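In response to reviewer comment 3 from the previous cycle, which asked for concrete evidence that the modeling workflow produces usable outputs, we include below a single protein chain processed end to end. The sequence was submitted unchanged, and the resulting C-alpha cells are shown without manual editing.
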Amino acid sequence: MTNPLQQVPLRIEAQQVGFFETPIAYCRLKDGDSLMQELEKSVRKNQQQNSGLKRSNFGGWHSDTDMLQWGGDAANKLAEAAINVAKRMTHFQEASPDSYQWQLRMWANISSAGGLNHMHAHPGNLWAAVLYLDMGDETDCSEDVGGAFYLEDPRFPMAAMHNPAVRMMGIDGQPQHYEVELQLARGNLVVFPAWLRHGVRPYTGKRERISIAMNIDAQRKSQA
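The workflow returned the following C-alpha cells.
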C-alpha cells in the first residue's frame, strides 16, 4: 500500500519578515553653502598649522579630534544638527533621549590621490557621522575617481566562514550584499551606529576631497 505522504508535496504558507534593522540616516544639508564654506576655511587653516594624526586613514590628512574647539560657530552648528538626527533614531528603555547629556567629537579628513580609509568602527560611542564638504575631482570629470564610502553588513562575516558565496534574501526579494556603497555628494550627512564597520575606497582624483567625521555618545544626566 502506497503511503499518501510520499505522493503529495507538503504545502506551506510562508511569509518573510525582516528583523534587527540597522538604522542609517542619509541626509542632505539645506541652504548649507555658507556653513560648509566656513567649515572648509577652518579645516584648511588647521591643516596649515598641524601635521595631523594617523588613524584609519592611509595617505591624506586627519586632524585632531578637537574640531569643536577650533571649528568656530559652523562646527558647533553642525554638531547640534548631527546630535538631533541621532536623537531621532535613539530609544532608551528607562528615559527619553533628552534625559541624557549628548557629547560629540569632531575631526576633518582631507584625501589626496591614493588616499583611503581602512575598514573600522568607532568603539565607545553610540553613533558616528560624516559630512562631505568637497568631493574633489568627482564633479570635474566624467571618469570614476573612486573614494566611495561603504558599510559592512555585520552579520555576513559569520556566514562567509561557511560559504563565502552565500547571500541572504531580503524582504525586497533581492540578495543582500556584504558591503553597501553610498552615493554621496557635497552636503550629504550620514549618521549610522558607531559599531557598524565602514571605510573609504581608494581615491584617485587629483583635487583633494574634504570630509568631516563625528563620534556621538550620550551619558545619563546626574539626578540633582
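The chain has one domain: 23-90+100-220. We consider this sufficient to address the reviewer's concern, and the full set will be provided in the supplementary archive.
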